[in-house]
Amino acid sequence: MPDKFPLAVIGTVAIDEVETPFGKREKAFGGSASYFSYAASFFSPVSVVAVVGKDFPAEFLNILKERPIDLSHLEKSDGKTFFWRGRYRYDMNAAETLETQLNVLTEFNPKLRFSSPPEFVFLANIDPTLQEKVLNQAAKPRTRFVACDTMNYWIENKRPELLKVLARVDGIVINENEARELAGEPSLIRAAQKIHGWGPSKVIIKKGEHGVILFDEGKFFILPAYPLESVFDPTGAGDTFAGALMGYLAKTGDFGFENLKKAVAYGTIVASFTVEDFSLDRLQRLETREIEERLGIFRKICSF
Amino acid sequence: MPDKFPLAVIGTVAIDEVETPFGKREKAFGGSASYFSYAASFFSPVSVVAVVGKDFPAEFLNILKERPIDLSHLEKSDGKTFFWRGRYRYDMNAAETLETQLNVLTEFNPKLRFSSPPEFVFLANIDPTLQEKVLNQAAKPRTRFVACDTMNYWIENKRPELLKVLARVDGIVINENEARELAGEPSLIRAAQKIHGWGPSKVIIKKGEHGVILFDEGKFFILPAYPLESVFDPTGAGDTFAGALMGYLAKTGDFGFENLKKAVAYGTIVASFTVEDFSLDRLQRLETREIEERLGIFRKICSF
């Protein structure tokens, strides 16, 4: 394990209960920071800033520990771990949230104690107030590139706080419907331009099975999703995408447009594995060779 | 005007009434064969097999006559022209049909009298019984490549007739929801494989603003839509796509996989112009130079 981490993520490490048309898992390892860090670890060491409760299973932590993932910023609090219960029906693009228990997340007060601060930081989908706390501690110029995610709940209930975060990040990775809602614009292209106007120079809009759009100060790039015969469980696809993307940026140290396109392609490919099984199961069996193979196939599928 | 037409389309030449969030047009030139032939004419001469009523405006016909479009198979019948009234709301991907009057289409009995039969034939979205009549007259080997379109109405009400057509065509160009319904398969990849099993070696699935998927006997190709800031009127986008695609195939005489990919890209680009204005208005102002320019931009947007 290196003592320097080029990449850090703040987000959730969670216990999920997931039901899809293909099955149900009652105690699944989940959370944005879990998917993110596991995906990123194929490209770069990564540090997780998060909190779990006393009930958090050791075997879940061991899954992360087997990778170049630093857990020295993973707090263990009294109380229960963040819990999410959701269901997918016919349309695997839309999760139906049945229950959310914030639990230990309510009192979470992240403190960054890196001897050498990460150059790349990802603020996964959590309360913008927490995202701002991390931003305050990850001051530029030491941090070279900060990106964030968010969701409809924060857009509707903490808009001023979210806009303050947006003004300070370099990139945002966001779902298409959230982009539309945030910008108040049905057109994704105009939504991206509007969000760009609020701060982030790179706006990355995830469209699930329909792929992704990247805007980078006037230039843009569109990529379909990797075609799969069947999607087993979409949970974590977006966080996996962001993790592989940021991991690739951290590995290469380059967030220019051409390299960003490659990062988006890697994000797409690693996410296409995540959805093939419950939880992080497919990622745990994933080899770097498979990522490169699928990327090669994908290139052929998309080029004309 | 050449006396030999490498490409023919059977479909509708119609009068539309269209309402979008941006405006309304009460007497718009429409119909699948109109959009198809106009789009194809940028690449190849094309012959229209269709019927209109006595009420059909001469100025609409003049729009086609200005292009290398042969109207010698456009019948003029007693009665009124096929009429479609539709509306688009917030979601420009889904047209709401308010009224359909078949009118002269009810008695239409297409007769092909080509001295030199077209090598490429497109059976646009009409009654599969009519599609079959054309197939019976456009016998192979003289016709090298036949493709068809269809819609939910025929899938639900004339399935046996439709399956007979499918067994005899080389390609199908179909919307994603119709592909799902036809195959009884939520996964587009599996739907395409199933449809391929019923006949067509090339299955092309249109996903509107999300692009297109091409399946060609095990190989596949995915292309996003050309990104537009705003879509003014989506009517005719699918027929334009098919027209430019078939026009490019007829021009090059090559329906191998690599050339088919290019044809799909041209279809995407020409359709992106159609939706920028009502009816065929934008196509009428379109220049070949603009098609090539936008294709160049599109290539950059999609490559990584």
Primary descriptors:
304 residues, ten-stranded mixed sheet, homodimer, globular, alpha/beta, 24% strand, four-stranded mixed sheet, 11 helices
Q: Return the average pLDDT of chain A rounded to an integer.
A: 94
Gap between N and C termini of chain A: 42 Å
- In total, the number of strands of chain A is 14
- Rg of chain A over CA atoms, rounded to whole Å, is 18 Å
Major protein interface? A-B, 28 and 28 residues
| Secondary structural class of chain A | alpha/beta
Structure, described:
2 copies of one chain form a homodimer. Chain A is 37% helix and 24% strand. Chain A is built from 11 helices and 14 strands. Chain A has helices at residues 32-40, 58-65, 128-137, 152-157, 159-166, 176-183, 188-197, 237-252, 257-274, 281-284, 288-302; strands at 7-10, 14-20, 23-30, 46-53, 69-70, 74-77, 83-87, 96-101, 120-123, 145-148, 171-175, 202-206, 212-216, 219-223. In chain A, the strands form 2 sheets. In chain A, strands 1, 4, 5, 6, 9, 10, 11, 12, 13 and 14 form a 10-stranded mixed sheet that branches. In chain A, strands 3-2-7-8 form a 4-stranded mixed sheet. Chain A starts with 6 loop residues before the first strand and ends with a helix. The model of chain A has no long low-confidence stretch (mean pLDDT 94). The A-B interface holds A 90, 186-190, 207, 210-211, 213, 220-224, 227-230, 261-262, 264-265, 299, 301-304 and B 90, 186-190, 207, 210-211, 213, 220-224, 227-230, 261-262, 264-265, 299, 301-304.
